[in-house]
Each structure stands twice: as C-alpha cells, then as structure tokens.
Amino acid sequence: MKRKIAILGSTGSIGRQALDVIRQHKDLFEVELLVANNSADLLIEQAVEFDANAVVICNDAHYDKVFAALDPHYIKVFTGMDSVCELVAGDNVDMVLTAMVGFSGLRSTVAAIKAGKAIALAHKETLVAAGAIVMRLAEEYKVPILPVDSEHSAIFQCLQGAGGNPIEKIHLTASGGPFRTWSAEAIAAATRDDALKHPNWSMGAKITIDSATMMNKGLEVIEAKWLFGVEPDRINVVVHPESVIHSMVEFADGAVIAQMGHPDMREPIQYALGYPARLSLNNKKLDFAAIGSLSFYAPDFKRFPSLSLAFKALEKGGNAACAMNAANEAAVAAFLRGELGFYGIAEVVRRTMEGAEFVADPTLDDIYATNEAAYSYAERIIEKL
C-alpha cells in the first residue's frame, strides 16, 4: 500500500525537495494534499504533476486562479487554515509533512497529531513555541514525530544504533553561516544580500537569515531538548563549516556516533517519509578522499548573540521561547525589508524577551496569545529603532 502524504508548505524549499523524493518513489508514496500560502502557479503545477486529491491555497486572494486551473483536473481546491486543519485529519492521509514557515504551522500540526497522523516535522516553530504541549499530545495520541531537519534527523539516526543506551550529550553541528569568519564590525554592516549567501545550503530567505544570525541553531537546540528529552547543559553546539557531519551523539563511555552525508535535504526527508526503510536517491555520495579533512570550532556567542538568547529562553521555560520566536520573525521580516540592521535582529529579540508577559505553564491558548502579543511588541521596538 502506498503511503499517502500531505505536504504543508509544498512550494517552499523543503516541500519542493520532498516532492522530488516522492517523484523518485511513486511506487511507495501518493500525494494526497498540498498546501501553499501565496505561490499559486507552482502549487497548480505540483498538483497536476502529482495528481493531488486536494490543495489548499491559504491566501484566499489566489483561490479563483487555483480553482480555475485545477477544476478541469478534478482536484479539489480549498482556502484558509481551517481547511488545512480539517483536511489533515482525513482518513485518506497517512503522514503529514509540516514544512510551513513561521508560527502559522503550529495549529495544523496540532490538528494532525490529534487525528493520529504520523508527523514528518520540518516546522521548527512547532516545538520552539509549544514543545512541552506538542510532545504531551504526541504521547497521548500515540503519534510518531519523525524529524526532518538535517541535524535532528542525524541525532535520530544515531540513536537507531545506540542499543537503547541513554544520551550523554548531543553535539549539534552548525555551518557557521556566511559570517563565520567576519569581524563583529563587518557583521554589523552586513546587507540583506550578504546574509542571504549561505555557503552550503539552499533554503528560503527566513531560514537563511536565521542561519546567518545563528538563531536557527538556537531554535534547533530548543527542538532537540523536546525531541530527545535532554536538558540544555547536555546540548553542545559545534561549528563545522563543511556540513558533512550533520550532528553527533555522545554516550557515557565517551563513544560518539555521527551521521554524515552531503548537505542535501532530500536525505533526511526520505528517511522521515520512508522510515524505517532507507530509500535510494539520485544524490551525490560522499568521497572521503576528496573531502580530505573536517574542521570544528566553538561558536562565538558575542558575535552571534541570537544563539545565547535561545539558550536563555530554554532555561527560562514557560512561554519564553514562544515570545523569542515571535520577536525573531518580526525582526527578520524587518531586516529583509531593509528597516533594521543585522544586529538589530538580536536587539529586538532581547528587548521583547525582557518585556513580554511571562507564563510559567502555558496552555495552547496562552501560546497563541503570546505569539500575537510578542510580535506586536517587537514591531513597536522596530519602529523605535
């Protein structure tokens, strides 16, 4: 039986690469649902190629265009987040790949979990904003959460060979982004174009800027805490510019298991979609002699203050990480619009974390309220700066 897949964020970087994995294994997977926000033309193209049962274009301004294009193909067209939440819960969906950018993907992920669907998680904000709640729900509804981020997939894969032994420490690797060797003065003057030049990965603008600030790694630290049940002092970030080792797990005896591969997101995507099977890919394979050597460095928390802010949010707990994430979304958007300097991103996040109302044991409603309030708070700070 083919595994029926819903892809939330099908027109983004992860979604497009997931469809390429499915394209190579049409005998194993069937596209049931595709969801996009604004990229109507690409959504139409994807839906026709993969003969999707249904699509959702979240921005209703594009609904008529998408409907007119897909109605002759008997592909159902919906709009709005309510439709996404309803469709992911349908009996015709086996697995939901959550790859929407930003906080908006949390609601649909929760709906899929409550419907008992396996989750291939590529949506950082789900665990960053509401990790305790989401993991409790996954346990309650007996839902597997399979990580798609290359780092968390690497940790997950390492644990498959751990024989049930507990984690002593996680070594979360980071490329260091485009500013790894830049001075603080040069980073302060960095432009939008500078920050979007990632040395190893091809990603969307938001994630690429998060990589440049190293907030992306901070978000991954928070995710790792919830996915693998480890405390922050057992999560170590190490800068590894070659991006060949995607992360490592250390055990009590000092032994370390690492997962390696070329920086190609299709590798962790196929592992999540096909788990426990490993599927063939038309990807580049490692040539160790050609690589020659691998290097590792400690992260610089002074030049990349966003990373330290993520650790602080994790240590504080409650809704602190949710407020941090909302502020970061607002600040990155402002930077991309040219309204904020590069180090202004971390400054907005810091001020928002200090000023946001703290809730020690938040409910989902508290998380939604925190996200909205913190985003607005950050926008007011941006206006002042």
- Residue ranges: pLDDT <50 for 5 or more in a row? none
**Order of helical and strand elements:** EHEHEHEHEHEHEHEHHHHEEEHHHHHH
* Average pLDDT level: 96
* Spatial strand order of the main sheet: 4-3-2-1-5-6-7
Gross geometry: globular
Number of helices: 17
Structural Rg: 20 Å
Total number of strands: 11
What is the first-to-last residue Cα distance? 56 Å
Model description:
The chain is an alpha/beta fold and 385 residues long. 48% of the residues lie in helices and 14% in strands. The chain has 17 helices and 11 strands. The strands form 2 sheets. Strands 4-3-2-1-5-6-7 form a 7-stranded parallel sheet, sandwiched between helices. Helix 5 (105-114) links the parallel strand 5 and strand 6 (118-121). Helix 4 runs parallel beside helix 5 (105-114). The chain is globular and about 55 Å long. The chain starts with a strand and ends with a helix. The model has no long low-confidence stretch (mean pLDDT 96).
